[in-house]
Design goal:
six-stranded mixed sheet; Purple Acid Phosphatase, chain A, domain 2; alpha/beta; 28% helix
């Protein structure tokens, strides 16, 4: 049984006010090509189909087109809602489209009935558990002690009565303890949303969504496939991919990744303004069209830096500085013995506290001249 594992499409997402619609359409076509080449029995989408509970029209149309392509490929598709999705909106008309092989989980109601696929090794049961919180589970099982996310998922899994005589796959969208997170994910204070991996002991493969960096949690049978695109600069070093899973006889599992190459990469560049605007630096690279975060190391701010840099770096998303002033990052405190200090002394102290270093002799001379002119004008 071969399955393609996807998650966290985040359709409709904007990054630093840039729409990702064109990039998402491009990467979904690449995924269709991979699916066509791999010829799996099923495709899993483990939550966060959309970036918002009420997605924009273009995101809905893009997902509709993607599902239509999948429905033409004679395979089964299993989709759950994530924490960014509205389960009610995502599962609209799910009983009708079940007939086309597209299976979308409903809002959690205390019951998870598996879909069964068959191959030469027997049954594979696919359990679809959407994103849940303790409160979601407690309302259906008031007699169970459900205080934590681990309690919630363990209770939901126990009620599935998973048989160990067949191969079992669970599709879910949670934060499993030990996963490496990124800035673009929603993080609960103190790790309160942690789910212990032991709750999935009865499954041959755990298809996870929610974490953007592809990774295994312990064994390869518990896996986050990651996002198909980079959605923050904290993901700049990630290698995005599609996960391909094969289950043979009970206990036999193989997992591989197929690299996804985006329309535009997300990169971070650092240097002085003069260095980054040299043709020898950017020519022959994709930096001019990539999504770029630039950190300038110039000690003085460059006037109109964003607009000037965008002449070269068309998709400059973010600009900041790394210099003595920004590293100092000290709060400006009281000036102390003000009455016994000259205006130049006070300004010099202020300058050090703001910038982290003292004025040059030339700057001191300039300020002294300015202060004297102001004082003369007030006499």
């Amino acid at each position: 049984m071969k399955l393609i594992h996807l998650s966290d499409l985040h359709l409709g997402k904007r990054v630093n006010e840039f729409s990702m619609a064109e990039d998402q359409e491009y990467i979904l076509k690449k995924i269709i090509n991979i699916i066509d080449s791999e010829k799996p029995d099923g495709v899993i989408i483990a939550g966060d189909v959309y970036d918002k509970p009420i997605p924009p029209t273009e995101a809905i149309e893009l997902f509709d087109s993607f599902l239509f392509r999948l429905s033409q490929m004679n395979l089964q598709v299993f989709i759950i809602s994530g924490n960014h999705d509205s389960p009610e909106r995502l599962s609209f008309a799910n009983r009708l489209i079940d007939q086309s092989g597209i299976h979308i989980s409903r809002d959690y109601n205390g019951e998870v009935t598996p879909f069964t696929l068959n191959d030469e090794y027997g049954e594979v049961r696919i359990y679809m558990l959407p994103f849940i919180k303790p409160v979601h589970v407690r309302q259906f099982f008031p007699d169970e002690a459900v205080e934590s996310y681990t309690d919630a998922v363990r209770t939901a899994v126990n009620k599935m009565e998973v048989s160990d005589s067949v191969r079992n796959v669970i599709v879910t969208h949670q934060f499993v303890t030990g996963a490496a997170r990124s800035e673009s994910e929603e993080i609960s204070v103190g790790g309160s949303d942690n789910v212990d991996a032991s709750v999935f002991n009865g499954f041959d493969y755990v298809a996870l969504g929610h974490i953007h960096n592809p990774q295994n949690i312990g064994a390869e049978r518990i896996r986050y496939c990651g996002t198909p695109l980079k959605y923050s600069f904290s993901e700049a070093s990630h290698q995005k991919s599609v996960t391909v899973v094969e289950l043979k006889e009970k206990g036999s599992l193989s997992v591989k990744s197929i690299e996804l190459v985006p329309l535009r990469d997300m990169v971070e560049l650092k240097g002085t303004y003069d260095e980054l605007t040299l043709k020898s630096f950017y020519e022959g690279t994709s930096y001019q069209t990539d999504y770029v975060h630039i950190t300038l190391t110039d000690e003085d701010d460059i006037p109109g830096a964003v607009s000037r840099l965008r002449v070269i770096y068309q998709n400059l998303m973010k600009l900041d500085y790394d210099n003595k002033r920004t590293r100092h990052n000290a709060r400006i405190s009281g000036a102390g013995d003000v009455e016994n200090k000259t205006p130049l002394d006070l300004f010099a102290e202020f300058y050090v506290k703001q910038n982290g270093y003292e004025m040059t002799g030339e700057q001191l001379g300039f300020m002294k001249e300015m202060i004297e002119k102001i004082w003369e004008g007030e006499k």
